[in-house]
# Entry
Amino acid sequence: MVGEIPRIVGEAELPLHEGRAPSWLYSRMKALGREIIVTIVREFGRREFLLRVSDPFWFQSLGCVLGYDWHSSGVTTVLTAVIREVLDEEDIGIVACGGKGKRSLETPNEILRKADRLSMSDSKAFELVRVSRLTAKVDNAALQDGHSIYHHAMLFSEDGDWAVVQQGMNPVRRTARRYHWVSHELRDFLNDPHSGIIAQSREEVLNLAAGESEENRRASLDLIAEGSSRLRRLVEEVSSGPLSPYMGEGRFLRMPRRIDWRAVEEANQLGLRNYEDLLLVRGIGPSLLRALSLIAEVIYGAPASRRDPARYSFAFGGKDGVPFPVRTGLMDRAIEVLRSGVIQSNLPDQEKESAMRRLARITGLLNDGEASPGEDRKG
# Structure
C-alpha cells in the first residue's frame, strides 16, 4: 500500500551500452510483453507482478525472454518503455510513469495524472510523488557509488502498491547500475534497506543509506540546525589540512569544492524532522551530503559507512571469473512465474516456443554457473 515503507529489492550493475533498440525488435518485445504481462497479472495478481519487477534477476530475465541481450544496460530503458506502453493500453489496474532523461523529470506530473485515472485520492497520489522523489534522492545522493541516476520509472497499482526501477551511469567506467524498490516489508528508507543488490564488483562508496551511518546522519542534521555560518567555518577548518590523522589512509576523504549554501539556508529554516526531510529539500545533493558527512566524522567522530551494498554478481561469473553460488529457491520462483506467463498467454505456439527456448537458455546459464546471481552476503 502507499502507506507502507519501501524495500529496495535489488540492484544490477551492467556494461553501459549506447544506442536504441531497432524498431522491429521493440515492436516484437511489446507484442510478446503484452501477452506475458497481462497473463501474469491475471494469474498471480497485481502485487505479484510489482514484486517480480522489483527483482533484478526476474526483470533481466523478462527482457531476455522478450528478445533483448541478457548482459546489457539497455534492457532497463527498453523494457521499462515496453512495460509503460503496455500498461497504458491495458486496463489491468497498474500504470507506469517516468523513463529516461527528460521523461524522468516529468514523473511527478505523470504520477498525478495516472493516479487520477486509477481513481486514487489526492493524498495517495501526492504520497506516491514523495516516494518517487525520495527513492531517486537515496540512490543518487545518499548512496554515492559513482553512478548518477539518468533513468527513473515508477509503477503503481490501484491497490496502492508500487515499485521503482531506476538506473545510474558511470561514464568513466562505462557501467550502469540498476536499483529496484518495492513497497513491501521494509521499515524505512535509510537503515540498510537493500536486500538483494547485484553488481559486477564492490567499490568503496559513501553509503548514507546504511544502518551503520545512522549516527552520522543525526550529526548531519545537527549541523544543518546550527546554520550556514557555522557550517562554512567547519568546512574551511576541515578543508585546511590533511584528514588522514582523523580518518586513516585510503578513506573517502575529498571535501566537495562547491556547496549550495542557499539549500543549506532553506533546510535550516524548514526545521527538519529527519534525514528523509533533508533529502527532499530542493538543492540538497551529493556534494552537500558528502560535506556534512565528512564534517560529522572529523568533528563529531560519527563515521559513515563505506560499504558498497552490492552483494552478488549479475555478470557471467564474478569479477575474477569465478561464479558466485546460486540462490536456487529464489531463481526457481522467478523462472516459474515467467514460464507460467508464457505458457498461459495467448501467444501463437511458435512465439511460445521461441520464448521458452530463450528462457531455457537463462536456466542453462544458471545451471552452468555463468550468469549467476549469488547468495546474499553483507560486508
